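FW: tagging you since you asked about this chain on Friday. Here's the raw sequence from the shared folder, copied in full. Didn't touch anything.
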Amino acid sequence: MKKLNNIFFKNILGYKEDAVKQQELFKAVVDNIPAMITYYDPSIKMLMVNKEFTRLTGWTSEEAQKVDLMAECYPDPKIREEAKNFMAKCEGWHDFPVTDKNGFVVESSWTNVRLADGRQIGIGIDISARKKTEEALKESEERFRSIFDKSGVAKALTRPDGKLLRVNQAFADLVGYSIKEMEKINFSKITYPDDIAISKESIRSLLANEQRIFRFEKRYIQKKRWYYLDRRKHNFIEK
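HL: got it, structure written out here
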């Protein structure tokens, strides 16, 4: 009987040691993964946050357990409620602006995993750099659109097949069509027949990267069937 008891206690101790090792392994992975990790119960009470979360937001695990972290990270009630609903669903990814301990915003994207005991793990990545790139691209596009639309020189964006994608008011005035009308037609409709070949050649040459700018004189057919001579410069724009 004593021998059996010894075996039993050794097994128990072995299980405990394995459990401790697994917990240590889990903590090591969580603390070194390059993503924010939060661990919380069904009421969204924070039980643990990892080092990356602390690095980006300033909140430690000890502090996260003592404060209403949702209120701190999402001071806007509308965004906070949206975040809570998203966390409850545990579906997909969603971008959220997380407010750090000093009141600065960390742009982030989150997903959530529900465990068997009802507790959940949140996984978040810092997307601040991506957001800055998107904003810079948006500003660049807005500047291009403003220069394009307000230019006194006729300008058009054309597909390789000749379909007009975008024209400015100066171009529309030149041929006598409205902008909406022009964006529904092919350039061949407003091109003098003898100049269609060189227009197509300009597109071919640009697409083949033989040159970046193709200059030539081109005649246009106005809506009232008048002819207009224009010194045309074609540029290739990668999309």
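FW: The radius of gyration is 32 Å.
HL: agreed, and Residues 2-32 form the longest helix (31 residues).
FW: great, closing this out.
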